[in-house]
Amino acid sequence: xxxxxxxxxxxxxxxTVLLIVLVGVLAVGSASLSAGAASHGHAAEQVPVxxxxxxxxxxxxxxxxxxxxxxxxxxxxxxxxxDGLNESELDAxxxxxxxxxxxxxxxEFNGTVPVEVISRAxxxxxxxxxxxxxxxxxxxxxxxxxxxxxSIGEDxxxxxxxxxxxxxxxxxxxxxxDDRIVIVSENATTPKMDEVTLxxxxxxxxxDQKLEISFNRSTREGLNAANGIIEGDGNLVDQIYQTNCGxxxxxxxPSSDDSSGGGDTSDINYxxxxxxxxxxxxxxxxxxQIRSEGGWEAVNDVYDNPPTSTEQVIHPxxxxxxxxxxxxxxxxxxxxxxxPDLGNGSVDYARFGQAGLSAxxxxxxxxxxxxxxxxLRPEQIFTDRxxxxxxxDVTNGWGNDRLYPYATNESAETNETGxxxxxxxxxxxxxxxxxxxxxxxxxxxxxxxxxxxxSTYRVSDDEPFGDAFYxxxxxxxxxxxxxxxxxxxxxxxAGVAPANETDPxxxxxxxxxxxxxxxxxxxxxxxxxxxxxTDTGDGFGPGFSVAVALLAVLASAAVAVRRHT
Length: 565
What we know:
The protein has 565 residues and is α+β, with helices and mostly antiparallel strands.
């Protein structure tokens, strides 16, 4: 169950218009749409082919795939969307969209889900109190983990950043708890329907009715991994649906000013957004790979054996055999420092996976519209110039990770915190490549080496990430320790940042920064505001529908990439 701060909304997802622009539509012929494999226990029936000019084809006996509540999937309907949809028009659009989702995916709906269209202003008002009901421990936990990702500075609030990012980017959502779908429109006077967004949320309702989606989502990595199938399947269906809207179907799509396109991009926290966007980016290709090998039935089977890491979604060849390795962690902090107790049986650590680590490196380029690209080469930002590249050389070989926030009794007032981040890698070289790249990223944010201490760095307190850092590399393990001062590092993790026994002017292996990080080298999170056992109190779960407003930023980056390659 996804907890959208105080609103139970398991399915809230970025508009896949972004995917269509950046990912492109997968080559799936319309002739194959009605031939998809059946859902569990439901054989796909042959959908009669109707001419798109037929406005009232005959109703069939029974309830075959591709027909719902009196409408065929390719039937024309008489609606006037420019002035908004009245109740009968909305019913017709919803019924036909349900039939279309059935025809694409080969699964029959159990029943109709109510649909509501609201303005973005109304949606924003509903979100305005969403981050008030949270514990101090959870607030600290969220702030620490997203500061560790260089997503928020010490003077920022993670939950507020989530709220503003959600408000700006969500185009619609399905709420099983309320048994309804909400479409968010940019038109405040007469909210308009976007049929493509509607199809996304209808498919989430169909997943909830027919497929197993009760996955372990207790960490961001666990949630993103599960979303690899949930959102990958949903966005692949959406891409096929969108293709048909351009070819064979008449679809209700408002103008760009009226669509569920998104709010002000200045409200988007790109570190948070990119971490959570990965399943929408890589999921469709993951699902298409499985579908190409075994049809929709093979895709259905993945719900019974979902990905256990984002690495498996980024690299489908690793699914299902190469899962995360075990991590053993022993607290060695002083009495002054401790891991905040989140209560309610919640895990007290965070996991980001390859998706999160890659987002950490991608954020500067995307947030700056490509004016800053530290660590990476320009052409590494996208794969095939269409999708964001989460399979970076510097994060390939991820084995597992855990980040433990640390706080003192004064941290709630001072916001002076720390963390220990243990990251396991497949090989020593993988670990070394990441450690070198991480140090280079630290230097981008203003870090300087501390000559008196081994593998220790300091960012000035005048900077957003003003802290001390220890970056240790031991075999296949990289350990990052953060604290307010160099002296605090060994209080948070005993034995780190030891006195440097070499001449401070000599360059040691741990101080070197490998600038050639582009070469290829050889479960779980925190209590949400309502106290549930999950680390997705930070916000986005499956089903939030990317905002069109974000297109300008990523499109600018894509153009810049093309200029530099």
